[in-house]
Amino acid sequence: MKKLTGFKWFYLSMIILGLLLPGAAPAGDGSIYVIPVRGVIEEGLGAFVERNLNKAEEEGAKAVILEIDTPGGTINGAKIMQEAILDTKIPVIAFVDGKAFSAGALITLAANKIAMTPGSAVGAAEPRPAEEKIISGWRAVMEDTAKTRGRDENIAAAMVDKDVVIPNLKEKGKILSLSAHKAVDVGMADMLVQDRAELLKELGYNRQPVVEVKPGAAETLARWVTHPMVSPLLLTIGIAGLLLEALTIGWGVAGTLGLLALSLYFGGHMLAGFTGWEAVLVFLIGIIALVLEIFIIPGFGIAGVLGILMVGTSIFLASRSTTDAVISLVVAIIGSIIILAVGLKFMTKRNFWDKIILGTRMANQEGYVAPKQELTQFLGREGVTITPLRPAGTADFQGHRLDVVTEGGFINAGATVKVVLVEGTRVVVREVHSS
């Protein structure tokens, strides 16, 4: 069985991710869609909710119930859902069965109706970091969403801003959270129910077919990959793995892990609906340009610059927003530098380089005698390079082909060179420039 190279692993990973792409969910005319919004809210979950809201509308669903139990999450993930809820033409019911804190509060307020179970709560939507600019923007979104649905915008603002005061409800210096009973009392929730069955009955949907949407393997992978902590980590492992691989001979664990991490990064963002194959294509072009720059083209020129720009562009194409892309890139670059430094130090301590590079010097004073080959006769002679010297290669000296090395630089084929040093079988040459 042939051993899979690094890029074959990459292609295989992308094919597997392609097979995981979500298919159509079963639905029927007049169905009630039930979409879970549980756990930390991130962009993958936002895309999942948005996709199924669109699907429900296309299939002629009568209504959508969002079953909410979340401690909050990212603003971007919440806004994806909020916009999708406000844009859809079918009724959306937020069914809070637990917590609807932070980003979850925005999703709840965006729904046409809000139902809560005893013991549940909504609010505590102060953003992090709690900077004035961020609080002001987030407060405006919460107020506008509440007002759009005919709810008290001051109460929505009190869930975000500690400075908002509402007599008999919230004092200054605290963030507002409402219990289920209190939310109904102040008009922020429409009803109190024990469970989904009672909710369906109260809404008159108990005779409608129910379609329960459950995240499949694709959605689970997309949520995990697009998590704000996981996404930069995968990018870091990917970049660091490829850099470490470039410094070693052959293909090994570092390169394979790097490509697998990048496969997950791009594949997860594709599954979440943030990007398409164009991001992968741009990334591959960038990697190819960097490989050409490192191993084939001497010095650092246009290929290296192009490679860096293409890799950076692919990250921006794969990300939901410019902010996410910048954060991921900064974290990945810093993390890669740290991993690279630790990796090189580890390889040095473990005598890694001694396993791939012969470090023994065979000096005459230690008893080593070079093979008797009269190469000293070529000292000072000029010849022409037959192959490029990178830094080793072959040169012709009036009909004598010799293996030669440069003093460290690169010399093109066809260049005139002069022998400046002979040590045993080692012939060192220097390029002769015409005046």
Write down the overall mean pLDDT.
Answer: 80
Number of helical elements: 15
- Give the CATH class of the largest domain: Alpha Beta
Beta-strand fraction estimate:
15-25%
User: Low-confidence parts lasting 5 or more residues at pLDDT below 50?
Assistant: 21-28, 355-359, 367-372
Q: What's the domain count?
A: 3
Largest sheet: 8 strands, mixed
CATH level-four homologous superfamily name of the largest domain:
2-enoyl-CoA Hydratase, Chain A, domain 1
Structural class: alpha/beta
Terminal residue distance: 58 Å
- Shape type: elongated
Annotated CATH architecture of the largest domain? Alpha-Beta Complex
Indicate the CATH topology of the largest domain: 2-enoyl-CoA Hydratase, Chain A, domain 1
The amount of helix comes to 40-55%
Radius of gyration: 32 Å
